[in-house]
């Protein structure tokens, strides 16, 4: 029995390592493409826009205005695509400010409040990217499916772990019925990649809550539960 337990634990560890390496590879490729869009295409569009503004159009103001409008739209689109692929500036801006930017972008569609403990300290960039992705995925699901009017995000540095709670006041969902959906699968894969424990607390008609505990050590948690 002891040998079987050791073998089982080794297999679980192996599977978790596979998930971690897979997500790291995906993020590396996303980052490569996002940086290319952000730095190359975005910068080229900005330069073209500057040149356009310095042109002497000799009365063709309508043409210049239309081109300028299209150029501005292309710049915004390249930034949006880059941002959705990988949070390029997260390393320099930091997780909290990046979440606040996401909240500002969604302010016209839903009310999101963010509460961060005063003791919060910058985490490893991999952890911060995964957390941002989870929050992004959660809010996207809320907007698509839950008919919620509020989302709450809590981030707190505890003694042994980083605690994150994301909740909404929407219609919620039956976990067993939707757990294979891409939104839930993506969230839980990212949680596993951080060796974190998590729990869903859903009440139909009243809202959903996702609780995540990310250990500060490199040890794997005993289990992650879903309710």
From TrEMBL:
Annotated InterPro entries: HATPase_C_sf, HATPase_dom, Sensor_HK_TwoCompSys
CDD domains: HATPase_UhpB-NarQ-NarX-like
BP term (GO), one: phosphorelay signal transduction system
Kinase listed as a keyword: yes
Keyword Transferase: yes
Lineage start: Bacteria, Pseudomonadati, Bacteroidota, Flavobacteriia, Flavobacteriales
EC number: 2.7.13.3
Provenance organism: Chryseobacterium cheonjiense
The protein's name: histidine kinase
